[in-house]
Amino acid sequence: MRFLRGAAATAAATAALAVLAVLLSGASGSSGTAAQTAGSGDLATLDSQVAKPVGVDPVRGCGQLAKENLAVDDEAPAWVGSAKVVAASDGIAEHCRVVGYIEPAIRFEVNLPTDTWNGRYFQTGCGAFCGWVPAESCIDAQRLNFATAAQNMGHDLTGVGMFSALWARDPGLREDFAHRSTHVTAVATKRLIELYYGQRPERSYFGGCSSGGREGQMEASRYPDDFDGIVSGDPAHPQRLGGVYNNWIARHSLRPDGSPIFSQAKATWLHKQVIAACDDADGLTDGLIEDPRNCTFDFADLACASGEDAAGCLTGKELAAVKKLYGFPRNSKGRILYPGRVELGQEMQLADAKSLGEMGQLSMEWLRHAAFRKNPPGDFDFRDLDYDRDPAKLRKMLPLYEAKPDFRKFQRAGGKMLVYHGWADIGVAPREQLDYLAEVRKRIGSQTDDTVRLFLIPGMKHCGGGVYPVDGRDVGTQSLLRMVNWVENGVAPDRLEVGYGAKGTQGGFPGPIEGPVVRNRPVFSYPQVARYDGSGSTDDAANFVPAAPPVDHTGSEDIAWKW
């Protein structure tokens, strides 16, 4: 298990996470059920209450699973290609690895501990358009002795790349990507678990970021009984993003030749101006903007003199670009087309040719092959999208691709969801998630906080990284641990502890950050914010307390956007 680490981490914070690792690894007793852990709001006090894990003996050999006929299930007709025992290594206990597919083309990998199962099931999500089986995303759950599963969302992009949407020309594969593959993988895996152990998992969990985050919200909306707890990171709803927002970002940040409008030097200078104006709104000067909505910044103040193009000002073209990017996407009549925008603090990403180019490619592929009922010509370019005419056509596909923000059945089933999102995520706007959860709240009202918790992480880009990079894998794993504590003990998560790397270091998603964690900060359940208590290091999470936000934004979270 990889936890947040760093010289600034306190003994109490480290102990709390270590306790969780033990807490979730199993329990004493002979029933073979999931851990019956002692509930506590203070995780650091649980060490004396945590029971030791027990092994559950399989009722049949691993290899026998390859002989089972799972194709008789009409909902999830599955075939096992191989089932082999894998020796213990790298902190993962010996397990039975099952590889197969669900008709028509959903490839999956399931890993079942042979004698250390904790009675739980964890299923991971994927990223972008998927097309591969992200079994590596289950490693931390495997180390905690979960039975795990991963799947390719219904198509194979080996050798093509995860931004290709050619598969979507098949209507059936569109449905698999949209929602079916995640659901039927859960159905088939639970059947395999029952065959192997003689019992179904007592608790089931889902976790993913980006497309995986959207998978989690789709599960809560469409299949509320599949999972007891869902971790949804930076959820990427494809029809909104490929259809509008990523298109908008690419069109207003890239030149016709594909190069960024902003040079690296100009983006760095612009970021410094924004940080200088907005950094201390939370009472600390630390290079992080707690909530960009609390800062007003007028880019016009940075305009170059007529005809000038200097390092310390914005040209007319640059000023026009930031006006579009830092505003909501709109059509010619001024109607908002997407409930998000570039946020203050994201300036460095305006010079990232690779990421911006990927947004253009993602949008182009989605629009060519997946976004419309009738596909446009094969040479359709992302710049060909008409913001006045085409949104009405995009709207017709929303029922398929979008996770409707209706969690009433999920709430009644006792389901829990933890959502985290980076404030510096330029590809999936954090305000979109605020708008989405405002819609959820309209439907379940006072039950919302008992069903969904949101954590907005200052400085974190899409699923990880940032100017002070955040290890997204640690965020996801800690979220899973706290989710289990919520589901099984009724202890709702009120904080995440986020570790930041040194400024300018790389990594954070999908790989780890370079170098050590140099700052630990708590992120409290929205809308609470973290406030320094005035004593000790500001790089130590123990020296922060929850507080009410300085500005109440609740009235502005529900954005009036129209398709």
TrEMBL record:
Pfam families: Tannase (PF07519). InterPro entries: AB_hydrolase_fold, Tannase/feruloyl_esterase. Residues 1-21 form the signal peptide. Keywords: Calcium, Disulfide bond, Hydrolase, Metal-binding, Serine esterase, Signal. The keyword Calcium applies. GO terms for molecular function: carboxylic ester hydrolase activity; metal ion binding. It comes from the Bacteria. The keyword Lipoprotein does not apply. Belongs to the tannase family. This is Feruloyl esterase.
